From TrEMBL:
PROSITE patterns: C2. Residues 2-132, 177-300 form the C2 domain. Belongs to the copine family. GO terms for cellular component: cell projection; perikaryon; plasma membrane. This is Copine-5. GO terms for molecular function: calcium-dependent phospholipid binding; metal ion binding. GO terms for biological process: cell differentiation; cellular response to calcium ion. The lineage of its organism: Eukaryota, Metazoa, Chordata, Craniata, Vertebrata. Its main location: other. The keyword Repeat applies. It is found in: Cell projection; Perikaryon. The keyword Magnesium does not apply.
Length: 622
Protein backbone atom coordinates (compact mmCIF):
# COMPACT_ATOMS: atom_id res chain seq x y z
CA UNK A 1 0.00 0.00 0.00
CA UNK A 2 1.36 3.33 -0.92
CA UNK A 3 0.43 6.19 1.12
CA UNK A 4 -0.66 9.65 1.20
CA UNK A 5 2.78 11.58 3.36
CA UNK A 6 -1.78 15.10 5.88
CA UNK A 7 0.62 16.04 6.73
CA UNK A 8 1.80 18.33 9.24
CA UNK A 9 5.35 19.47 9.46
CA UNK A 10 6.93 20.01 12.83
CA UNK A 11 7.51 23.63 11.93
CA UNK A 12 3.71 24.09 12.13
CA UNK A 13 3.74 23.46 15.86
CA UNK A 14 4.23 27.13 16.54
CA UNK A 15 3.26 30.23 14.63
CA UNK A 16 6.76 31.62 15.07
CA UNK A 17 8.49 28.39 14.11
CA UNK A 18 8.96 29.49 10.54
CA UNK A 19 11.16 32.39 11.65
CA UNK A 20 13.30 30.32 14.03
CA UNK A 21 16.32 28.56 12.54
CA UNK A 22 15.76 24.82 12.77
CA UNK A 23 17.96 21.77 12.43
CA UNK A 24 16.87 19.15 9.93
CA UNK A 25 16.80 15.72 11.53
CA UNK A 26 16.33 12.40 9.76
CA UNK A 27 14.41 9.75 11.71
CA UNK A 28 14.94 6.10 10.81
CA UNK A 29 12.49 3.47 12.04
CA UNK A 30 13.10 -0.22 12.73
CA UNK A 31 11.01 -2.73 14.67
CA UNK A 32 11.66 -6.07 16.32
CA UNK A 33 9.33 -8.91 17.29
CA UNK A 34 6.11 -7.43 15.95
CA UNK A 35 2.82 -9.24 16.36
CA UNK A 36 2.16 -11.80 13.63
CA UNK A 37 -1.35 -11.12 12.30
CA UNK A 38 -1.20 -13.23 9.14
CA UNK A 39 -2.24 -16.88 9.28
CA UNK A 40 -0.09 -18.31 6.50
CA UNK A 41 2.77 -15.80 6.46
CA UNK A 42 4.33 -13.07 8.55
CA UNK A 43 2.95 -9.55 8.93
CA UNK A 44 3.50 -6.90 6.26
CA UNK A 45 4.32 -3.92 8.50
CA UNK A 46 3.88 -0.21 7.84
CA UNK A 47 4.81 2.59 10.25
CA UNK A 48 2.81 5.83 10.43
CA UNK A 49 4.27 8.85 12.22
CA UNK A 50 2.09 11.57 13.76
CA UNK A 51 2.98 14.97 15.19
CA UNK A 52 1.05 16.83 17.86
CA UNK A 53 0.14 20.51 17.60
CA UNK A 54 1.56 22.80 20.25
CA UNK A 55 -1.71 24.59 20.94
CA UNK A 56 -4.63 22.35 19.99
CA UNK A 57 -2.89 19.07 20.94
CA UNK A 58 -4.37 17.41 17.88
CA UNK A 59 -2.47 14.58 16.21
CA UNK A 60 -1.79 14.99 12.51
CA UNK A 61 -0.32 12.37 10.23
CA UNK A 62 3.18 13.35 9.17
CA UNK A 63 4.09 10.48 6.92
CA UNK A 64 4.30 6.75 6.32
CA UNK A 65 7.10 4.36 5.61
CA UNK A 66 6.99 1.83 2.83
CA UNK A 67 5.39 -1.57 3.42
CA UNK A 68 7.81 -4.45 3.94
CA UNK A 69 6.40 -7.87 3.14
CA UNK A 70 6.57 -10.91 5.39
CA UNK A 71 8.69 -9.76 8.31
CA UNK A 72 8.34 -9.19 12.03
CA UNK A 73 11.65 -7.30 12.16
CA UNK A 74 11.42 -4.52 9.55
CA UNK A 75 14.12 -1.97 8.83
CA UNK A 76 12.29 0.76 6.94
CA UNK A 77 14.18 2.56 4.18
CA UNK A 78 11.84 5.54 3.92
CA UNK A 79 12.83 8.21 6.45
CA UNK A 80 11.03 11.06 8.17
CA UNK A 81 12.72 14.45 7.73
CA UNK A 82 11.66 16.84 10.50
CA UNK A 83 12.64 20.22 11.92
CA UNK A 84 14.18 19.99 15.38
CA UNK A 85 13.71 22.84 17.87
CA UNK A 86 15.72 22.40 21.06
CA UNK A 87 13.48 24.74 23.06
CA UNK A 88 10.23 22.94 22.20
CA UNK A 89 8.62 19.69 23.30
CA UNK A 90 7.78 18.04 20.00
CA UNK A 91 5.50 15.09 20.66
CA UNK A 92 5.59 12.18 18.23
CA UNK A 93 3.47 9.07 17.84
CA UNK A 94 4.32 5.96 15.85
CA UNK A 95 1.58 3.49 14.86
CA UNK A 96 2.37 0.10 13.32
CA UNK A 97 0.00 -1.73 11.00
CA UNK A 98 -0.07 -5.05 9.20
CA UNK A 99 -1.14 -4.11 5.69
CA UNK A 100 -3.79 -6.38 4.22
CA UNK A 101 -4.55 -4.56 0.97
CA UNK A 102 -3.57 -1.53 -1.12
CA UNK A 103 -6.16 0.64 0.58
CA UNK A 104 -4.78 3.84 2.16
CA UNK A 105 -7.50 3.62 4.84
CA UNK A 106 -5.68 2.52 7.98
CA UNK A 107 -8.88 1.17 9.52
CA UNK A 108 -8.81 -1.60 6.93
CA UNK A 109 -5.51 -2.94 8.25
CA UNK A 110 -4.52 -4.74 11.44
CA UNK A 111 -3.19 -2.51 14.20
CA UNK A 112 0.08 -3.90 15.61
CA UNK A 113 0.89 -1.38 18.32
CA UNK A 114 2.08 2.14 18.97
CA UNK A 115 4.65 4.18 20.85
CA UNK A 116 4.82 7.77 22.06
CA UNK A 117 7.93 9.89 22.55
CA UNK A 118 9.32 13.34 21.91
CA UNK A 119 11.82 14.30 19.27
CA UNK A 120 14.09 15.41 22.09
CA UNK A 121 14.00 11.90 23.57
CA UNK A 122 15.31 10.42 20.35
CA UNK A 123 17.99 13.05 19.81
CA UNK A 124 19.06 12.96 23.47
CA UNK A 125 19.35 9.17 23.73
CA UNK A 126 22.82 7.58 23.63
CA UNK A 127 23.88 7.60 20.02
CA UNK A 128 20.56 9.32 19.24
CA UNK A 129 19.02 5.84 19.22
CA UNK A 130 15.86 5.22 21.24
CA UNK A 131 14.20 1.85 21.85
CA UNK A 132 10.63 1.76 23.12
CA UNK A 133 8.14 -1.01 23.66
CA UNK A 134 5.13 -1.02 21.38
CA UNK A 135 1.81 -1.35 23.18
CA UNK A 136 -1.76 -1.89 22.09
CA UNK A 137 -3.02 0.64 24.62
CA UNK A 138 -6.69 1.61 24.81
CA UNK A 139 -8.45 1.16 21.52
CA UNK A 140 -11.88 1.13 19.92
CA UNK A 141 -13.53 -0.89 17.19
CA UNK A 142 -14.01 0.74 13.83
CA UNK A 143 -17.75 0.84 13.18
CA UNK A 144 -17.36 -0.14 9.51
CA UNK A 145 -14.66 -2.79 9.58
CA UNK A 146 -14.72 -4.13 13.12
CA UNK A 147 -10.94 -3.73 13.31
CA UNK A 148 -9.32 -2.18 16.39
CA UNK A 149 -8.29 1.45 16.10
CA UNK A 150 -5.20 2.84 17.85
CA UNK A 151 -5.37 4.83 21.04
CA UNK A 152 -4.70 8.55 20.98
CA UNK A 153 -2.68 10.30 23.64
CA UNK A 154 -3.43 13.99 24.12
CA UNK A 155 -1.03 15.87 26.32
CA UNK A 156 0.01 12.64 28.02
CA UNK A 157 -3.58 11.58 28.85
CA UNK A 158 -5.09 8.42 27.38
CA UNK A 159 -8.35 9.23 25.60
CA UNK A 160 -10.36 6.03 25.58
CA UNK A 161 -13.14 5.78 23.03
CA UNK A 162 -16.72 5.04 23.97
CA UNK A 163 -16.49 1.45 22.86
CA UNK A 164 -13.47 -0.63 23.78
CA UNK A 165 -12.76 -4.20 23.09
CA UNK A 166 -10.48 -6.94 24.36
CA UNK A 167 -8.06 -9.64 23.47
CA UNK A 168 -10.08 -11.27 20.69
CA UNK A 169 -10.23 -8.19 18.45
CA UNK A 170 -6.80 -6.71 19.04
CA UNK A 171 -4.46 -9.61 19.32
CA UNK A 172 -3.44 -8.31 22.74
CA UNK A 173 -4.84 -6.80 25.91
CA UNK A 174 -4.68 -3.01 26.43
CA UNK A 175 -1.21 -2.05 27.61
CA UNK A 176 0.31 -5.35 26.50
CA UNK A 177 3.79 -5.14 24.97
CA UNK A 178 3.82 -6.26 21.37
CA UNK A 179 7.32 -5.71 20.08
CA UNK A 180 9.93 -2.98 20.07
CA UNK A 181 10.38 0.10 17.93
CA UNK A 182 13.88 1.48 17.36
CA UNK A 183 14.11 5.16 16.45
CA UNK A 184 17.36 6.70 15.26
CA UNK A 185 17.94 10.39 14.59
CA UNK A 186 20.74 12.10 12.74
CA UNK A 187 21.24 15.74 11.91
CA UNK A 188 21.35 16.21 8.17
CA UNK A 189 24.25 17.99 6.57
CA UNK A 190 23.87 20.73 3.99
CA UNK A 191 25.40 18.56 1.28
CA UNK A 192 23.29 18.83 -1.88
CA UNK A 193 25.22 16.36 -4.02
CA UNK A 194 23.44 13.43 -5.62
CA UNK A 195 25.39 10.29 -6.51
CA UNK A 196 24.31 8.10 -9.42
CA UNK A 197 25.80 4.63 -9.62
CA UNK A 198 25.37 1.15 -11.02
CA UNK A 199 26.57 -2.24 -9.80
CA UNK A 200 26.82 -5.75 -11.16
CA UNK A 201 27.83 -9.04 -9.53
CA UNK A 202 29.61 -12.14 -10.69
CA UNK A 203 29.43 -15.77 -9.55
CA UNK A 204 27.25 -15.21 -6.49
CA UNK A 205 26.40 -18.21 -4.33
CA UNK A 206 23.45 -20.29 -5.47
CA UNK A 207 20.82 -20.25 -2.72
CA UNK A 208 17.70 -21.67 -4.37
CA UNK A 209 17.32 -25.44 -4.61
CA UNK A 210 15.46 -25.51 -7.93
CA UNK A 211 16.96 -22.41 -9.49
CA UNK A 212 19.57 -19.72 -9.23
CA UNK A 213 19.53 -16.92 -6.67
CA UNK A 214 17.35 -13.80 -6.85
CA UNK A 215 19.91 -11.26 -5.59
CA UNK A 216 19.47 -7.71 -4.36
CA UNK A 217 21.71 -5.24 -2.52
CA UNK A 218 21.06 -3.41 0.74
CA UNK A 219 23.16 -0.33 1.58
CA UNK A 220 23.86 0.84 5.14
CA UNK A 221 25.80 3.78 6.53
CA UNK A 222 27.74 3.37 9.76
CA UNK A 223 26.91 5.20 12.98
CA UNK A 224 29.24 6.43 15.69
CA UNK A 225 28.05 3.74 18.11
CA UNK A 226 29.00 0.96 15.70
CA UNK A 227 25.49 0.30 14.43
CA UNK A 228 24.33 0.73 10.85
CA UNK A 229 21.40 2.61 9.32
CA UNK A 230 19.76 1.33 6.17
CA UNK A 231 19.76 3.86 3.35
CA UNK A 232 18.97 2.06 0.09
CA UNK A 233 17.76 -1.18 -1.48
CA UNK A 234 18.15 -2.17 -5.08
CA UNK A 235 15.56 -4.05 -7.08
CA UNK A 236 15.56 -7.85 -7.10
CA UNK A 237 17.14 -9.54 -10.12
CA UNK A 238 15.39 -12.86 -10.65
CA UNK A 239 17.10 -16.20 -11.26
CA UNK A 240 20.70 -15.12 -11.90
CA UNK A 241 24.12 -15.42 -10.29
CA UNK A 242 25.50 -12.60 -12.43
CA UNK A 243 23.04 -9.73 -11.96
CA UNK A 244 23.33 -6.25 -13.41
CA UNK A 245 21.25 -3.88 -11.31
CA UNK A 246 19.67 -0.75 -12.68
CA UNK A 247 21.34 2.61 -12.24
CA UNK A 248 20.06 4.45 -9.18
CA UNK A 249 20.51 7.88 -7.64
CA UNK A 250 20.86 8.63 -3.96
CA UNK A 251 21.60 11.89 -2.09
CA UNK A 252 25.10 11.90 -0.67
CA UNK A 253 23.69 12.99 2.67
CA UNK A 254 21.59 9.81 2.72
CA UNK A 255 24.55 7.65 1.81
CA UNK A 256 27.13 9.13 4.18
CA UNK A 257 25.71 12.49 5.35
CA UNK A 258 28.60 14.32 3.74
CA UNK A 259 31.35 12.30 5.48
CA UNK A 260 33.29 10.86 2.55
CA UNK A 261 35.26 8.41 4.73
CA UNK A 262 32.26 7.04 6.58
CA UNK A 263 31.94 3.26 6.29
CA UNK A 264 29.26 2.04 3.90
CA UNK A 265 28.26 -1.59 4.30
CA UNK A 266 26.59 -3.43 1.44
CA UNK A 267 24.83 -6.72 2.07
CA UNK A 268 23.86 -9.14 -0.68
CA UNK A 269 20.71 -11.23 -0.26
CA UNK A 270 18.80 -13.88 -2.15
CA UNK A 271 15.16 -12.83 -2.19
CA UNK A 272 12.54 -15.28 -0.91
CA UNK A 273 8.80 -14.79 -1.23
CA UNK A 274 8.17 -15.56 2.45
CA UNK A 275 10.47 -12.74 3.56
CA UNK A 276 13.21 -14.99 4.93
CA UNK A 277 15.82 -13.66 2.52
CA UNK A 278 19.03 -15.70 2.43
CA UNK A 279 22.22 -13.85 3.32
CA UNK A 280 24.85 -14.30 0.60
CA UNK A 281 27.58 -12.02 1.91
CA UNK A 282 28.73 -8.47 2.46
CA UNK A 283 31.46 -5.96 1.78
CA UNK A 284 32.35 -2.45 2.95
CA UNK A 285 33.38 0.66 1.10
CA UNK A 286 33.14 4.45 1.46
CA UNK A 287 31.98 7.35 -0.62
CA UNK A 288 35.58 8.32 -1.28
CA UNK A 289 36.29 4.85 -2.68
CA UNK A 290 33.12 4.82 -4.77
CA UNK A 291 33.98 8.25 -6.18
CA UNK A 292 37.01 6.72 -7.90
CA UNK A 293 34.54 5.23 -10.34
CA UNK A 294 34.99 2.01 -12.26
CA UNK A 295 38.44 0.67 -11.42
CA UNK A 296 40.25 -2.25 -9.84
CA UNK A 297 39.65 -0.64 -6.46
CA UNK A 298 35.91 -0.98 -6.83
CA UNK A 299 35.67 -4.73 -7.36
CA UNK A 300 34.53 -6.08 -4.01
CA UNK A 301 34.66 -9.61 -2.68
CA UNK A 302 31.33 -10.67 -1.19
CA UNK A 303 32.19 -12.44 2.05
CA UNK A 304 29.97 -14.52 4.32
CA UNK A 305 31.64 -14.33 7.77
CA UNK A 306 30.10 -17.61 8.97
CA UNK A 307 31.35 -19.52 5.94
CA UNK A 308 34.77 -17.94 6.31
CA UNK A 309 35.03 -19.18 9.89
CA UNK A 310 33.88 -22.72 9.08
CA UNK A 311 35.72 -23.39 5.83
CA UNK A 312 39.48 -22.97 5.58
CA UNK A 313 39.45 -22.96 1.77
CA UNK A 314 36.61 -20.45 1.56
CA UNK A 315 37.49 -17.48 -0.66
CA UNK A 316 34.29 -15.54 -1.25
CA UNK A 317 30.65 -15.84 -2.27
CA UNK A 318 31.14 -13.89 -5.47
CA UNK A 319 32.13 -10.36 -6.37
CA UNK A 320 30.32 -7.06 -6.83
CA UNK A 321 31.67 -4.49 -9.27
CA UNK A 322 30.93 -0.79 -9.53
CA UNK A 323 30.11 -0.17 -13.19
CA UNK A 324 29.63 3.59 -13.08
CA UNK A 325 29.62 6.49 -10.65
CA UNK A 326 28.72 10.13 -11.17
CA UNK A 327 27.85 12.99 -8.87
CA UNK A 328 26.10 16.28 -9.46
CA UNK A 329 25.05 19.06 -7.13
CA UNK A 330 21.42 20.11 -6.87
CA UNK A 331 20.74 23.81 -7.17
CA UNK A 332 18.51 25.63 -4.71
CA UNK A 333 15.92 28.26 -5.51
CA UNK A 334 18.38 30.99 -4.54
CA UNK A 335 20.97 29.50 -6.88
CA UNK A 336 18.53 29.84 -9.75
CA UNK A 337 17.51 33.37 -8.77
CA UNK A 338 21.13 34.48 -8.36
CA UNK A 339 21.81 32.98 -11.76
CA UNK A 340 19.15 35.21 -13.28
CA UNK A 341 16.31 32.73 -13.75
CA UNK A 342 12.96 34.43 -14.30
CA UNK A 343 9.58 32.84 -13.58
CA UNK A 344 7.07 33.47 -16.35
CA UNK A 345 3.61 33.31 -14.82
CA UNK A 346 0.54 32.66 -16.99
CA UNK A 347 -3.03 32.37 -15.71
CA UNK A 348 -5.93 30.61 -17.44
CA UNK A 349 -9.49 31.14 -16.13
CA UNK A 350 -12.54 28.93 -16.66
CA UNK A 351 -15.37 30.78 -18.45
CA UNK A 352 -17.70 27.81 -18.84
CA UNK A 353 -21.43 28.12 -18.14
CA UNK A 354 -21.25 25.79 -15.14
CA UNK A 355 -19.89 28.73 -13.15
CA UNK A 356 -23.32 30.35 -13.20
CA UNK A 357 -24.58 33.70 -14.45
CA UNK A 358 -22.00 36.33 -13.34
CA UNK A 359 -24.82 38.76 -12.56
CA UNK A 360 -26.22 36.45 -9.88
CA UNK A 361 -24.72 36.20 -6.41
CA UNK A 362 -24.64 32.38 -6.61
CA UNK A 363 -22.19 32.49 -9.51
CA UNK A 364 -18.52 31.75 -8.91
CA UNK A 365 -17.82 34.70 -11.21
CA UNK A 366 -20.08 37.10 -9.30
CA UNK A 367 -18.30 40.41 -8.71
CA UNK A 368 -19.31 41.51 -5.25
CA UNK A 369 -18.44 45.08 -4.25
CA UNK A 370 -17.45 43.78 -0.82
CA UNK A 371 -15.20 40.78 -1.45
CA UNK A 372 -13.26 38.91 -4.11
CA UNK A 373 -14.91 35.94 -5.76
CA UNK A 374 -13.37 32.45 -5.74
CA UNK A 375 -11.44 33.00 -8.98
CA UNK A 376 -9.97 36.29 -7.83
CA UNK A 377 -9.00 34.76 -4.48
CA UNK A 378 -7.17 31.88 -6.16
CA UNK A 379 -5.43 34.20 -8.60
CA UNK A 380 -4.34 36.56 -5.84
CA UNK A 381 -3.13 33.80 -3.51
CA UNK A 382 -0.79 32.26 -6.07
CA UNK A 383 0.03 35.35 -8.09
CA UNK A 384 1.19 37.43 -5.15
CA UNK A 385 3.87 34.84 -4.45
CA UNK A 386 5.09 34.29 -7.98
CA UNK A 387 5.04 37.92 -9.16
CA UNK A 388 8.12 38.79 -7.10
CA UNK A 389 10.25 36.48 -9.25
CA UNK A 390 9.25 38.12 -12.53
CA UNK A 391 11.17 41.33 -13.14
CA UNK A 392 8.77 43.02 -15.59
CA UNK A 393 5.56 41.94 -13.77
CA UNK A 394 3.86 41.37 -17.14
CA UNK A 395 1.70 38.24 -16.98
CA UNK A 396 -0.20 36.65 -19.89
CA UNK A 397 -3.84 36.04 -18.90
CA UNK A 398 -6.04 33.66 -20.87
CA UNK A 399 -9.61 32.43 -20.72
CA UNK A 400 -11.22 29.24 -21.99
CA UNK A 401 -14.71 27.87 -22.53
CA UNK A 402 -16.43 31.10 -23.68
CA UNK A 403 -18.15 32.44 -26.80
CA UNK A 404 -16.40 35.55 -28.08
CA UNK A 405 -17.98 38.54 -29.78
CA UNK A 406 -18.93 39.38 -32.43
CA UNK A 407 -19.55 35.95 -34.05
CA UNK A 408 -20.00 33.78 -30.95
CA UNK A 409 -16.97 31.64 -31.72
CA UNK A 410 -16.01 29.29 -28.84
CA UNK A 411 -12.41 29.76 -27.71
CA UNK A 412 -10.23 27.91 -25.23
CA UNK A 413 -7.25 30.29 -25.18
CA UNK A 414 -8.49 33.85 -25.66
CA UNK A 415 -6.61 36.81 -24.11
CA UNK A 416 -8.46 38.45 -21.25
CA UNK A 417 -7.24 41.88 -22.36
CA UNK A 418 -8.53 41.31 -25.90
CA UNK A 419 -5.06 41.68 -27.44
CA UNK A 420 -4.22 38.58 -29.49
CA UNK A 421 -0.69 39.81 -30.15
CA UNK A 422 0.14 40.58 -26.53
CA UNK A 423 -2.07 38.95 -23.87
CA UNK A 424 0.13 40.21 -21.02
CA UNK A 425 -1.33 42.24 -18.17
CA UNK A 426 0.55 44.50 -15.78
CA UNK A 427 0.72 42.82 -12.39
CA UNK A 428 -1.98 40.92 -10.55
CA UNK A 429 -4.18 44.01 -10.52
CA UNK A 430 -3.93 44.15 -14.29
CA UNK A 431 -5.05 40.52 -14.58
CA UNK A 432 -8.02 41.17 -12.28
CA UNK A 433 -9.01 44.20 -14.34
CA UNK A 434 -8.83 42.21 -17.59
CA UNK A 435 -10.76 39.36 -15.96
CA UNK A 436 -13.58 41.67 -14.90
CA UNK A 437 -13.64 43.23 -18.37
CA UNK A 438 -13.95 39.80 -20.03
CA UNK A 439 -16.88 38.85 -17.80
CA UNK A 440 -18.79 41.80 -19.28
CA UNK A 441 -17.95 41.01 -22.91
CA UNK A 442 -17.93 37.22 -23.39
CA UNK A 443 -20.65 34.61 -23.02
CA UNK A 444 -19.98 31.71 -20.65
CA UNK A 445 -20.24 28.45 -22.55
CA UNK A 446 -18.06 25.31 -22.56
CA UNK A 447 -16.66 22.68 -22.47
CA UNK A 448 -13.81 22.63 -19.93
CA UNK A 449 -10.79 22.08 -22.18
CA UNK A 450 -7.29 22.46 -20.72
CA UNK A 451 -5.15 21.20 -23.59
CA UNK A 452 -5.11 24.49 -25.58
CA UNK A 453 -3.74 26.60 -22.70
CA UNK A 454 -1.23 23.90 -21.72
CA UNK A 455 -0.01 23.79 -25.32
CA UNK A 456 0.08 27.61 -25.45
CA UNK A 457 2.43 27.88 -22.46
CA UNK A 458 4.48 24.87 -23.56
CA UNK A 459 5.05 26.52 -26.92
CA UNK A 460 6.45 29.62 -25.23
CA UNK A 461 8.54 27.56 -22.79
CA UNK A 462 10.11 25.67 -25.70
CA UNK A 463 11.53 28.90 -27.10
CA UNK A 464 13.90 29.39 -24.14
CA UNK A 465 15.53 26.31 -22.62
CA UNK A 466 18.85 27.69 -21.43
CA UNK A 467 17.79 27.84 -17.77
CA UNK A 468 17.11 31.56 -17.79
CA UNK A 469 13.31 31.18 -17.70
CA UNK A 470 10.82 28.90 -16.00
CA UNK A 471 7.14 28.93 -16.92
CA UNK A 472 4.31 28.43 -14.44
CA UNK A 473 0.75 27.97 -15.68
CA UNK A 474 -2.09 28.52 -13.21
CA UNK A 475 -5.42 27.05 -14.33
CA UNK A 476 -8.47 27.95 -12.22
CA UNK A 477 -11.57 25.90 -12.94
CA UNK A 478 -14.88 24.87 -11.43
CA UNK A 479 -15.36 21.46 -13.00
CA UNK A 480 -14.07 18.21 -14.34
CA UNK A 481 -11.68 18.35 -17.28
CA UNK A 482 -13.56 17.60 -20.51
CA UNK A 483 -10.54 16.86 -22.69
CA UNK A 484 -8.62 14.67 -20.24
CA UNK A 485 -6.93 12.58 -22.94
CA UNK A 486 -5.78 15.65 -24.89
CA UNK A 487 -4.65 17.39 -21.70
CA UNK A 488 -2.56 14.40 -20.65
CA UNK A 489 -1.02 14.21 -24.09
CA UNK A 490 -0.20 17.94 -23.98
CA UNK A 491 1.52 17.45 -20.62
CA UNK A 492 3.48 14.47 -21.91
CA UNK A 493 4.60 16.46 -24.95
CA UNK A 494 5.84 19.20 -22.61
CA UNK A 495 7.52 16.78 -20.21
CA UNK A 496 11.06 17.97 -20.95
CA UNK A 497 10.27 21.67 -20.89
CA UNK A 498 11.02 24.01 -17.96
CA UNK A 499 7.44 24.48 -16.80
CA UNK A 500 5.00 23.56 -14.05
CA UNK A 501 1.22 23.58 -13.91
CA UNK A 502 -1.05 24.45 -11.00
CA UNK A 503 -4.72 23.53 -11.26
CA UNK A 504 -6.97 25.00 -8.59
CA UNK A 505 -10.55 23.80 -8.38
CA UNK A 506 -13.17 26.22 -7.05
CA UNK A 507 -16.80 25.68 -6.17
CA UNK A 508 -18.32 22.33 -5.31
CA UNK A 509 -17.55 20.30 -8.42
CA UNK A 510 -15.77 17.00 -8.02
CA UNK A 511 -12.46 16.12 -9.64
CA UNK A 512 -12.45 12.51 -10.76
CA UNK A 513 -8.99 11.09 -11.34
CA UNK A 514 -9.95 7.52 -12.14
CA UNK A 515 -8.55 7.58 -15.64
CA UNK A 516 -5.77 5.59 -17.32
CA UNK A 517 -2.23 6.90 -17.92
CA UNK A 518 -1.67 9.24 -20.86
CA UNK A 519 -1.52 7.57 -24.24
CA UNK A 520 1.83 7.87 -26.01
CA UNK A 521 3.43 8.49 -22.63
CA UNK A 522 7.23 8.32 -22.62
CA UNK A 523 9.04 5.54 -20.82
CA UNK A 524 8.79 6.05 -17.09
CA UNK A 525 5.63 8.17 -17.11
CA UNK A 526 3.41 6.95 -14.30
CA UNK A 527 0.49 9.15 -13.21
CA UNK A 528 -0.41 8.97 -9.57
CA UNK A 529 -3.98 8.06 -8.70
CA UNK A 530 -6.28 10.93 -7.92
CA UNK A 531 -7.63 11.41 -4.44
CA UNK A 532 -11.22 10.43 -3.75
CA UNK A 533 -13.48 13.36 -4.75
CA UNK A 534 -14.12 15.87 -2.00
CA UNK A 535 -16.55 18.77 -1.89
CA UNK A 536 -15.14 22.02 -0.59
CA UNK A 537 -16.83 25.34 -0.19
CA UNK A 538 -15.77 28.20 -2.41
CA UNK A 539 -15.37 30.65 0.42
CA UNK A 540 -12.52 28.77 2.09
CA UNK A 541 -8.97 30.02 1.80
CA UNK A 542 -7.29 29.48 -1.54
CA UNK A 543 -3.67 28.50 -1.71
CA UNK A 544 -1.38 26.17 -3.60
CA UNK A 545 2.07 24.66 -3.96
CA UNK A 546 4.03 23.53 -6.98
CA UNK A 547 6.25 20.56 -7.64
CA UNK A 548 8.97 21.69 -10.02
CA UNK A 549 11.47 19.61 -11.96
CA UNK A 550 14.31 20.68 -14.15
CA UNK A 551 13.78 17.63 -16.35
CA UNK A 552 10.02 17.30 -16.46
CA UNK A 553 6.62 18.80 -15.98
CA UNK A 554 5.04 18.33 -12.59
CA UNK A 555 1.38 19.02 -11.96
CA UNK A 556 -0.43 19.54 -8.68
CA UNK A 557 -4.20 19.60 -8.63
CA UNK A 558 -5.69 21.53 -5.73
CA UNK A 559 -9.16 22.47 -4.63
CA UNK A 560 -10.33 25.29 -2.42
CA UNK A 561 -9.01 25.13 1.11
CA UNK A 562 -5.85 23.31 0.13
CA UNK A 563 -7.51 19.95 -0.43
CA UNK A 564 -5.17 18.16 -2.79
CA UNK A 565 -7.04 16.33 -5.53
CA UNK A 566 -4.06 14.41 -6.85
CA UNK A 567 -0.73 14.64 -8.61
CA UNK A 568 0.54 13.80 -12.05
CA UNK A 569 4.24 13.90 -12.78
CA UNK A 570 6.91 12.38 -14.98
CA UNK A 571 9.65 10.64 -12.96
CA UNK A 572 13.13 11.87 -13.73
CA UNK A 573 14.85 8.55 -13.23
CA UNK A 574 14.54 4.84 -13.69
CA UNK A 575 15.16 2.22 -11.03
CA UNK A 576 13.69 0.96 -7.85
CA UNK A 577 12.41 4.36 -6.78
CA UNK A 578 14.09 4.75 -3.42
CA UNK A 579 15.53 8.13 -4.33
CA UNK A 580 14.04 10.80 -6.56
CA UNK A 581 16.26 13.84 -7.12
CA UNK A 582 15.41 17.06 -8.91
CA UNK A 583 11.96 17.68 -7.40
CA UNK A 584 11.24 20.69 -5.24
CA UNK A 585 8.57 23.10 -4.16
CA UNK A 586 7.86 26.60 -5.40
CA UNK A 587 9.90 27.98 -2.53
CA UNK A 588 12.92 25.84 -3.36
CA UNK A 589 12.99 24.98 -7.08
CA UNK A 590 15.81 22.62 -7.90
CA UNK A 591 16.55 21.61 -4.32
CA UNK A 592 16.83 17.97 -3.41
CA UNK A 593 13.78 15.91 -2.54
CA UNK A 594 13.94 12.22 -1.64
CA UNK A 595 11.15 9.71 -1.90
CA UNK A 596 9.47 9.63 1.49
CA UNK A 597 10.25 13.21 2.47
CA UNK A 598 7.45 15.68 3.11
CA UNK A 599 7.42 19.26 1.87
CA UNK A 600 4.58 21.65 2.65
CA UNK A 601 2.36 18.69 3.40
CA UNK A 602 3.17 16.81 0.18
CA UNK A 603 5.16 13.63 -0.06
CA UNK A 604 7.70 12.95 -2.74
CA UNK A 605 6.36 9.84 -4.46
CA UNK A 606 7.51 7.45 -7.13
CA UNK A 607 4.58 5.07 -7.28
CA UNK A 608 1.28 4.86 -9.09
CA UNK A 609 -0.60 3.73 -5.98
CA UNK A 610 -1.39 6.95 -4.13
CA UNK A 611 -4.18 8.31 -1.98
CA UNK A 612 -4.72 11.29 0.33
CA UNK A 613 -4.63 11.40 4.10
CA UNK A 614 -7.71 11.87 6.22
CA UNK A 615 -7.39 15.65 6.17
CA UNK A 616 -5.11 17.99 4.30
CA UNK A 617 -3.51 21.09 5.81
CA UNK A 618 -4.24 24.62 4.75
CA UNK A 619 -1.51 25.99 2.48
CA UNK A 620 -2.10 29.65 3.27
CA UNK A 621 1.45 30.00 4.58
CA UNK A 622 2.70 29.52 1.02
Amino acid sequence: MEQPEDMASLSEFDSLAGSIPATKVEITVSCRNLLDKDMFSKSDPLCVMYTQGMENKQWREFGRTEVIDNTLNPDFVRKFIVDYFFEEKQNLRFDLYDVDSKSPDLSKHDFLGQAFCTLGEIVGSPGSRLEKSLTIGAFSLNSRTGKPMPAVSNGGLWMESLRTTGLEASGGVPGKKCGTIILSAEELSNCRDVATMQFCANKLDKKDFFGKSDPFLVFYRSNEDGTFTICHKTEVMKNTLNPVWQTFSIPVRALCNGDYDRTIKVEVYDWDRDGSHDFIGEFTTSYRELARGQSQFNIYEVVNPKKKMKKKKYVNSGTVTLLSFAVESECTFLDYIKGGTQINFTVAIDFTASNGNPSQSTSLHYMSPYQLNAYALALTAVGEIIQHYDSDKMFPALGFGAKLPPDGRVSHEFPLNGNQENPSCCGIDGILEAYHHSLRTVQLYGPTNFAPVVTHVARNAAEVQDGSQYSVLLIITDGVISDMAQTKEAIVNAAKLPMSIIIIGVGQAEFDGESPPPRCAPRGFRPLEMAPPKRVRARTAVCAAIWMSRQGVSVCLFAQGGVCQGVYRTPTHQGCGEEAPSHSSLLHPGSLWRVGEWHHGLEVRDSCDWAPPVSWPQFSHL
